[in-house]
Amino acid sequence: MNYLRRRLSDSSFIANLPDGYMTDLQRPDPPPQPPPKPAPVGAAPAASAAASASAASERRPQPAQPTQPTQPAQSAGVGFFSSITNVVKQTAASAGLVEQTAVGASKKFKILLVIDEAQQDWVKLFRGKKIQGEHDIKVEQAEFSEISLVSHANGTCNVHVQAFRNATKVVRSFMPDFVLIRQHAFSMVENEDFRNLIIGLQYAGIPSVNSLESVYNLCDKPWAFARLISAYKKLGPEAFPLIEQTFYPNYKDMVTMPTFPVVVKIGHAHCGMGKVKVANHSGFQDIASAVALTHAYTTTEPFVESKYDIRIQKIGSNYKAYMRTSISGSWKTNTGSAMLEQVAMTDRYKLWVDTCSEIFGGLDICAVKAIHGKDGKDYVTEVVGSSMPLIGEYQAEDKQHICDLVVARMNQAVARQAARSSQRPTTVQPSQVGKHAERFCYKVFLVLNPGVAVKPRESQLQRQDPSAEPNQSVSAQQLTSFRGGQQPRAMGHDLPDDQPSKARHQTPKAPSQQNSKPQVHKSQSLTNAFSFGSSSFFRSSSEDQAKAETIRSLRKSFASLFSD
């Protein structure tokens, strides 16, 4: 055992061992149980009476107590072999040779992350809903500003939430299975840029409503307006009346004067922020100087005297249209006092929202904003994604439509995940074993068998050279010849990269020839090889076996990997 400790003491190998590996080898045997203390001599008569009463009770039949089995002498060897088996399994899993079972695969609920304000209670809406008829939905709700996350390429995303609920700090950590985004991910207002969180969710491949790609693309209004321009060119001005717009990348380009009056939109903002009405050239120059301080892009649109605003929303297959008329007299109808009224859904309105819902791979939840001018014309101005605010007296109904849509999308995501899992192979065929695992098996064999001959399989020799002797073997001393006189390396040191692969294609030569490489048969399957060693070890072990027998059995198990 001391020899094995010296051989396996390399730092690079110990770093890959599980916790407690070396302590299992160094743990001393448990001390024997102390014998019961004898009764004191010359006890009082009362003590004698108590002793006689206890003796009488002992003569009564007592239920048999289970005896603890004695630990065998080679328990340390069993722990040693189990540790090596675990290391091999971990190495094979990291090399992609076997499939790793997901930790949360057996959980009976799916975690839905809802990104929305705390005033909106989504937990109540999803209560009682099930995915695939068996998984409950656990809702975790938070705002963008309360979320931090870490994403991994294997598809896991660890989300941490720190929020204040009723003046109490709440800290939670979880891994979401689905995301519903009901907040704007980006605004040029201070501390409202959460695009990095969208990137993190996309990095882990978390499905969402709307899609994370569309959420990220809608973080810049001119970028989304460019898609509306494509729809305008496809459908024409009569079917899709898009408002005219001019884009300025920075303030230096704001030298071309538009037609006045004009509405200047600075950067990307919401709720009427960053919008200025300019009536003449001097006002436009003043705005350009203010844009220079923001380092933002700018767009301009001709000012339209609106009679009312139009908003057409789509949630799944549900459509609604609203008309909003300003009461306060402000040219921004989305600010101040306004009267909201639901209007009939016309084919024209439906065409607008259906066209906009096809951009960026599809928008399950979207809204189209338009202006109906006093000249009797309509002007489409903007498209909003799943972060659109719910308005009108049917907000509860709209929330239920969103809930049903999310459940349907979660069912589809779980079905796709199950289909991918069924197509993924669960076992490793012999042809799938990579060079990394074979080299690992070879190094383990050399460490545990420094003086044992390495014999190639007869099938390999006959396929390469029918005239070769089937029982030809190469000793450990001859292994040093092709290494330039070096001794076999301890585990953790890399072998030459070409040794395991080239050994298959070279014809075996006489052992006396200089620089001849031995034909070493590598394991056909890493998992099967160590499973065979484990079964052989437990068949040959018994409770009275010594540690030396354990090591010999372990060597025989590894030797079987390289011989017929």
From TrEMBL:
Give the record's GO CC terms.
synaptic vesicle membrane
Output the Gene Ontology terms for molecular function: ATP binding
Which GO BP annotation is one of this protein's?
neurotransmitter secretion
Q: Which PROSITE patterns match?
A: SYNAPSIN_1
Q: Where is the composition biased (Pro residues)?
A: 28-39
PANTHER family associated with the record: SYNAPSIN, SYNAPSIN IIA
Cite the record's Low complexity compositional bias ranges.
40-56, 65-74
UniProt name for this protein? Synapsin IIa
The record's family statement is: Belongs to the synapsin family.
Basic and acidic residues bias: start-end ranges: 491-501
Q: Which Pfam families match?
A: Synapsin (PF02078), Synapsin_C (PF02750), Synapsin_N (PF10581)
The family database entries (Gene3D superfamilies) matched by this protein are listed as: 3.40.50.20, ATP-grasp fold, A domain, ATP-grasp fold, B domain
Note whether Metal-binding occurs among the keywords.
no
- Provide this UniProt record's keywords sorted from A to Z: Cytoplasmic vesicle, Phosphoprotein, Synapse
Q: What is its main location?
A: cytoplasm
Classification via InterPro entries: ATP_grasp_subdomain_1, PreATP-grasp_dom_sf, Synapsin, Synapsin_ATP-bd_dom, Synapsin_P_site, Synapsin_pre-ATP-grasp_dom
Disordered: annotated segments: 15-76, 457-526
Compositional bias, Polar residues, is annotated for: 461-484, 509-526
Residues forming the Synapsin pre-ATP-grasp domain are: 106-208
Synapsin ATP-binding domain residues are 210-412
Spell out the subcellular localization from the entry: Cytoplasmic vesicle, Secretory vesicle, Synaptic vesicle
The record's annotation in SUPFAM superfamilies points to:
Glutathione synthetase ATP-binding domain-like, PreATP-grasp domain
